[in-house]
Amino acid sequence: MNILIVDDLNTMRQLIKRSLLEFPANSPVNIEEIYEAADPEIALEMLDDGLVVNLILSDLHMPNINGIEFLKVMKNHPQYKDIPVIMITTDGSKRQVLNAIKNGAKDYIFKPFQTDELLMKVEDICSRYCN
User: Which residues of 8-18 are buried (b: 16+ CB within 10 A; e: fewer)?
Assistant: First the structure.
């Protein structure tokens, strides 16, 4: 499977990537490629250019287009609407969680996160939504 990480902070993208590489060999999640985008506009360009991903992990607060706007674009695009998105953010307010879910996020992870938590959520979402 291919995963796209969307976060404006390179250090966070690298942390998420390192965490994803912790999946054990016997895991049902078989990661082939991990792609990175520094903001949603770049992510959308990558998808428009033909990048095929099975899962997106996206920050909520980013410059230009925030995570909610990114979710709205994804949800309303016929080609991308079925790609599951997990939001990763420091904003733990109930309102933001509900807003993200309402706009298409399949799950939500709060920063700072534990690697085990990230892997568990990715495995759960992929077992239900990734194709």
Answer: beeeebebbbe
Predicted confidence at residue 123, as pLDDT, reads 96
> Phi and psi at residue 66, in whole multiples of 5°?
-85, 175
Q: How far is CA 119 from CA 24, 30, 78, 96, 113, in A?
A: 10, 12, 28, 22, 10
If one counts the domains in the chain, the total is 1
Contact assessment for residue 65 and residue 25, using Cβ atoms and an 8 Å cutoff: no
| The pLDDT of residue 65 | 92
Does the predicted model carry a pTM greater than 0.90? yes
Per-residue pLDDT tens digits for 19-33 = 999 998 888 899 999
Domain, as residue range, for 24: 2-129
Q: What is the CATH number of the domain that holds 68?
A: 3.40.50.2300
**d(Cα 94, Cα 116) in Å, to the nearest integer?**
23
Mean pLDDT of 8-17: 97
Amino acid at 45: E
